[in-house]
């Protein structure tokens, strides 16, 4: 079993569901979500802490995972976590591509990239910084903001992504009312950035 996980043939799955992308540049699009279990980044404000303990979730064969992703009328698949790049995603992405699905990744960027993706969203976290090699391939840089100092960190990482990468600022949810006002003001002064709203939480959907 462990060998198959190492090879990426089996993966621990926290949940799979069909819904709308709630945040980032692709917000509002229908997508099938594959949330992998396990994380070594451990952010204090993480909204998926229940996924951190791999032992709490089943290990699934990637063929079963791919069948689930292909079972909806939508062609978008989001691989998220936890931290999905803890695992070898090459085999799963290959299966999803054979189904003609558009594969999106949500990651902290703290592990080497595996898998082939149509869209990569990197959301750097303070406990374990992203790798430059992942930042350079990002289509979207999504920075979580909780204090004024976080804007400095956002600008630092903005200097490491490509000129085509979308730059987004997203309020830490627990203080979003106050932080969104900070973000509004910041973007008016620095219009290369866009705001990301967690619509799925506002709509109370998964």
The percent range for helix content is: 25-40%
Q: How many strand segments?
A: 9
The CATH homologous superfamily is called: Aldolase class I
Number of helices: 7
Biggest β-sheet strands, sense, barrel: 9 strands, mixed
Shape: globular
The CATH architecture term is: Alpha-Beta Barrel
Point out poorly predicted stretches: none
Structural class: alpha/beta
Could you describe the 3D structure shown?
This protein has 206 residues and is α/β, with parallel strands linked by helices. It contains 7 helices and 9 strands, in the order αβββαβαββαβαβαβα. It has a 9-stranded mixed sheet. Helix 4 links the parallel strand 6 and strand 7 (140-145). Helix 2 (62-69) packs parallel to helix 3. It starts with a helix and ends with a helix.
Give the tags.
206 residues, alpha/beta, TIM Barrel, 9-stranded mixed beta sheet, 7 helices, 26% helix, 25% strand
Give a short synopsis of this structure:
The chain is an alpha/beta fold. The protein has helices spanning 2-7, 62-69, 90-98, 132-135, 150-158, 176-189, 199-202, and strands at 10-20, 30-36, 59-61, 76-80, 102-107, 119-122, 140-145, 166-171, 194-196.
List the helices and strands and how they pair.
Layout: H1 2-7, E1 10-20, E2 30-36, E3 59-61, H2 62-69, E4 76-80, H3 90-98, E5 102-107, E6 119-122, H4 132-135, E7 140-145, H5 150-158, E8 166-171, H6 176-189, E9 194-196, H7 199-202
Parallel strand pairs: 2-4, 4-5, 5-6, 6-7, 7-8, 8-9
Antiparallel strand pairs: 1-2, 1-3
Helix pairs in contact: 2-3
């Amino acid at each position: 079993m462990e060998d198959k996980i190492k090879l990426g043939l089996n993966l621990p799955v926290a949940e799979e569901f069909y819904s709308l992308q709630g945040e980032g540049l692709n917000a509002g699009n229908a997508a099938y979500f594959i949330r992998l279990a396990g994380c070594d980044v451990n952010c204090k404000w993480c909204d998926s802490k229940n996924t951190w303990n791999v032992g709490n979730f089943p290990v699934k064969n990637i063929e079963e995972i791919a069948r689930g992703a292909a079972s909806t009328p939508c062609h978008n698949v989001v691989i998220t976590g936890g931290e999905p790049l803890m695992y070898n995603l090459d085999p799963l992405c290959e299966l999803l591509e054979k189904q003609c699905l558009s594969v999106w990744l949500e990651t902290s960027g703290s592990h080497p990239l595996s898998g082939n993706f149509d869209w990569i969203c990197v959301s750097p976290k303070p406990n374990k910084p992203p790798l430059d090699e992942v930042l350079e391939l990002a289509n979207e840089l999504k920075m979580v903001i909780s204090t004024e100092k976080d804007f400095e960190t956002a600008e630092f990482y903005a200097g490491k992504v490509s000129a085509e990468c979308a730059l987004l600022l997203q309020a830490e949810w627990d203080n979003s009312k106050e932080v969104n006002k900070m973000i509004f003001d910041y973007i008016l002064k620095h219009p290369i950035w866009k705001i990301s709203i967690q619509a799925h939480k506002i709509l109370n959907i998964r």
